[in-house]
């Protein structure tokens, strides 16, 4: 390079004419710029990282649901916002990992907690149980409870909570399908212990 010439900018090194980019003859392979390969690789890397992060957040959300007893105050959206990841991506990963949606899993945990509260606490009324689980309206809690157990919560409590057939049926449905390790209402440690 002569002292009077200016160096070419880096972007111009990859610029080429139409003749350079595509071969005239069909027998020769066409030329692809290196940025395209790097762009594809970088995109794959970013997607892989997002999937990995969404799995971690899905596991974290499951842990939060378990710790809160399925309470409605547990918010997956806030957790996703905290980790700056899409709720829909985490939702898809949650369903892949646990074979149940986040909402259905939270409802199942919430109803198990409600069953335990009503069975063990004789002096706790239905309204207090509903409030403890985050329901604003007792009627919504009662309807969800009846859909799950086939009885209104008050009747369930008066009968001593004797609906062990439903719990046994739920347990059998998971083991019958061979999903003991993927059962959403057990931890991986519990599933491992059950297989031994």
Top keywords for this entry?
single chain; disordered C terminus; Arc Repressor Mutant, subunit A; 11 helices; 196 residues; 65% helix; 0% strand; mainly alpha
Count of separate DSSP helical elements:
11
CATH topology of the domain at 33-140: Arc Repressor Mutant, subunit A
CATH architecture annotation name of the domain at 33-140: Orthogonal Bundle
Task: Return the CATH class of the domain at 33-140.
Answer: Mainly Alpha
- The amount of helix comes to 55-70%
Shape: elongated
Q: Summarize the biggest pleated sheet.
A: none
Number of strands: 0
Helix/strand class:
mainly alpha
What is the percentage of strand-forming residues?
under 5%
What's the rounded overall pLDDT mean?
Answer: 74
Mind telling me the C-alpha Rg?
Answer: 28 Å
Report low-confidence residues grouped into runs of 5 or more: 10-25, 173-196
Q: What distance separates the N and C termini?
A: 75 Å
General description of the model:
By secondary structure, the chain is an all-alpha fold. Helix 3 crosses helix 5 (87-98) and helix 3 packs parallel to helix 6 (102-120). It is built from eleven helices and no strands. It has a domain at 33-140: Orthogonal Bundle (Arc Repressor Mutant, subunit A). The chain has helices at residues 10-14, 18-21, 34-68, 76-82, 87-98, 102-120, 126-132, 138-149, 153-158, 164-176, 188-195. Mean pLDDT is 74; it is low at 10-25 and 173-196.
Task: Provide a brief overview of the structure.
By secondary structure, this protein is mostly helical. It has eleven helices and no strands. It has a domain of 108 residues: Orthogonal Bundle (Arc Repressor Mutant, subunit A), CATH 1.10.10.
